[in-house]
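Suppose a colleague, Dr. K., hands you the sequence of a protein chain of 188 amino acids and asks what its three-dimensional shape might be. Before reaching for any lab equipment, you can write down a predicted structure in token form. Begin with the sequence itself:
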Amino acid sequence: MDFETLKAECLSCRRCGLCETRKNVVFGQGVPNAEVLFVGEGPGANEDEQGLPFVGRSGKLLDSYLEAVDLDRNRNIFIANIVKCRPPENRDPLPEESAACMPWLRQQFQLLRPKIVVCLGRIAAQQMIDKSFSVTKDHGKFFDKQGTLFMATLHPAALLRNPGNKPLAFEDFAALRDKIHEVCDHTY
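The predicted structure, expressed as tokens, is then:
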């Protein structure tokens, strides 16, 4: 299966109740040969409206961090979410919603075969790295899982609520840039 076929299937998904309230499925955005995959928890209102990940205020902040380390969703990375449809009122995705949607992310992962996965926030980190993961304690550290490096950083929306943590997130992105130079072939 290729990316376009997967996207077409995903856009018509009805695996959980989130399909009843969504405007758009947010499949993800980026290049199909990305060595670095960013994963958030799920779309918010702006993302649901536009069908693209991280396009609201937190997306603008994420883009500024990406730009600072020469990454760009249209040039050398891919951004996806655990769930592809917006949970009502931006609540955390329910376990059954995450479970229903996870096969889409797994297939994206299999097509991309990223060398590095960056989890944006606690929910993505607990789903992808470890159930007991603490973003405040373990952000910026790399974990090798079957040959893929995983790292988590603070969610951009959390940084908007707590701007004092922005320097910590910037350190994470600097560490990411160094790791990309170390393990990736064509990101830079």
